Amino acid sequence: YQNSFKVSENDIVYEMSFDKSPTTIKDALGEHEVFFDNVNVSIKILKSNANKILSLAYQGCDHNGICYPQNISKIKLPKIDGDFQSISANQESFFNQHIEDNIVLTLLLSFLLGISLDLTPCVLPMLAIFSAMITGVKSCNLKDSLILNFTYVIALALTYTVIGFIFARFGMLSQGFFQHPVTLLCISSLFILLALDCMEVLKIKIPNKLNLYLQNKMAKQKRGTLSSAFLFGIISALLATPCTSAPLAGALLYVTTQGNQILGSLLFLSLGLGMGFPLLLIGIFGRNFLSYFGRFGKIIRNLLAIPLVLTAFYLISHLLGDYYIFVFASLIAFSSAYFVFIILKNKTSISTKFQILITTGIFVLSLLLSLPFTE
Questions:
Q1: Disulfide check for 195: which of 88, 228, 305, 315 has CB 3.0–4.6 Å away?
Q2: CB-based contact 23:34 (threshold 8 Å)
Q3: Residues near 148 by Cβ (< 8 Å), separated by ≥ 6?
Q4: pLDDT digit string, tens, across residues 254-304
Q5: What's the CA gap between 372 and 375, in Å, rounded?
Q6: Number of neighbouring beta carbons within 10 Å of residue 4
Q7: Is the pTM of this model over 0.70?
Q8: How far is 146 from 143, CA to CA, in rounded Å?
Q9: How far apart are CA 157 and CA 153, in angstroms?
Q10: Contacts of 114 (CB under 8 A, 6+ apart)
Q11: How far apart are the C-alpha atoms of 344 and 358, rounded to whole Å?
């Protein structure tokens, strides 16, 4: 789509042109100018400071009107004044990118999500029990305890990696289905339901039979050995709790819609490492530090609704058209106000009326401030 080619200015003076004329097509969203097959984009840099980042974003769809996720390519520029340089990009190479430019940040957020899942009220009290089951009843020195807990973490992370790969693979094979506007709207609605579960507005119940079966298998295993620690890690990855089911389901839906096997595997590898990291801390510092985080468990679970809502918006953002700016600004305002509300709600000294007043004020202020920056 010609109008999807966008260059972030960042004090860069430029001119953009294409090596061929676009074709006019009509689809469900109206009339558009598009390029078929490959197109070369020439960007003439007229003025730029040193180390400025030029970002070229664009989006395309197949002949059925099913759109792919937006692609972004970034190039660091030298100092340019008066003269120009030409940067060419091939459309097909952008579409075939396997790893996004911000992969490090994405993996870090996935790792932090894994840690936050461990700090929820359903999981945090179980960490000490899991650590005891891994190391066994016999006393272990620090070295043995770390080895056993690390074995558990590796098994947990590898299991999540396989799960992420399977769901991403399934999404790649069904890319057309998962990129259809109706499917994206349904999946975004599921993300909203999962967010409401984290907000405790509604309760999504998970089947207990599988969990009970896995827990019984875990309890029967011999403790204090590397093989049992590894098996504990595999079984733990398959267990679900009321606190973790919504965020994990959201993560699985996300990698499925992306259809990127490498990204899906790496995301769940980071997620598994994050969920296993607190156990390593238990092996080093003991179980006393758990009491410090216990009071934050409910807050963390409630705040997990924010990334779920943001992901729901991300999936359907290209379908919003002219409403994109308003919806995005409203979402920023909601996230800010909701964050403040959750923090204030856990302060018993603050009245409900004052909480509502402050939250409403934060929402209105955030909406007014974010609208100019989202245009």
A1: 305
A2: yes
A3: 134, 135, 140, 224, 226, 229, 283
A4: 888 776 788 888 888 998 888 888 877 776 666 665 666 666 777 888 888
A5: 6
A6: 16
A7: no
A8: 5
A9: 6
A10: 270, 271, 272, 273, 274, 275, 276, 277
A11: 9
